[in-house]
Known about the structure:
This protein is an alpha/beta fold.
Amino acid sequence: MKTINVGLIGFGTIGAGVAKILSENQEIIQKRLGATLRLAKIVDLDIETDRGVQVDDGVLSTSVDDILENPEIDIVIELMGGYEPARTFMLKALANNKHVVTANKALLALHGDELFGVVEEKKLSIGFEASIGGAIPIIRSIREAFVGNRIHTIEGIVNGTANYILSKMSDENCEFDVALKEAQEKGFAEADPTFDIEGIDSAHKIAVLTRIAYGTPVNFDDINVSGITNISSDDIECAREFGYRIKLLAISKFDGEAIDIRVHPAMIPISHPMASVNGVLNAIRICDDMMDENILAGHGAGALPTGSAVVGDVVEIARNILSNASDRVPASSFLNSEIKPIPLKDMSAIESEYFLRFNVLDKPGVLSKISGILGNHCISIESMIQKGRGEEGKAVSLVMMCHRSSEKNIQNALKEIEKLDVVCGKSNLIRVEK
Length: 434
């Protein structure tokens, strides 16, 4: 039976999960693959800490050249994360005719064009299923299952940390800081959670999905991104009263001319299937011209869910090696020669329904002033709630749900409203996605 040798760069949480799966499930992998997958070398700066995984003597190393310059290694798994030296290592692996697998969505979002170009030029394979949605087979679905369909919408809950925080706030009526602290204590959030709570991680993922869904390069800096740090328990409660739940959504919509790509908190109806995707789970909704919509949901992070996706890519590439068909599926779904720039829609041009929350003094005439400004900007109010009564000089929350309007109109109205002497501080806006 043929042996295919694998090298692993990065022996952290996910790397340990990959090693565990390749070791404990070696027999079932052999039966399905028809070959032996051998984890020949693991490289990490720290090879002393016990990861709870048994590896053979001589497998651990601190020198990346033991993988990149080893002619016997066929597939290189990169799980160190970050931009550099991950990019350099992957390019060197490809230069040495090794196939690559990665879970590095940040690297793909910023340097995917370069990597995919080298993969096609060298007639090699790159697997990156684990970069988005953990165990959810979203990359494989777009590249293969939906290959004959014109995708026009992708909406996803693609960050487990943010989803855990919002779920905890919704279910236990706690504030953001409390939910974040618990997420960190349980290991669902990093000590520095910035990428997760500010939407950057979700933006990396939607950039990659946009490229493979529509066949266009995406400049990451052009994505409009906002996180969940401004979401309060009041917003959560008001959303519930209006029949919605708040989620951090990564959105990409193609109307045939331009792409609307953004990341921000959004209200979705409680009846929507994604509204019940809670905790660290992820869900991705895909709409196309043939099947209306499909929703894929599952474990979006963790050693074994993400490790399973990595191993799935390794096995797929191993099958390609066995059949001498390594470039069977284009890395980014489209042939590189067919990747064409599609303009991105300016954020001011999008249309949505809006939830608005103002802190206002409890005085007569406040509502008429605010509604008057909204009306002057062609924004109509669907419903309204005032939360409590304020003591003299104290602010109360005035909450409005507005009918469909343009982002430009709503932002211009908010700038004017925030200048009123009866409005205390900055207002809060949450878009509604139905």
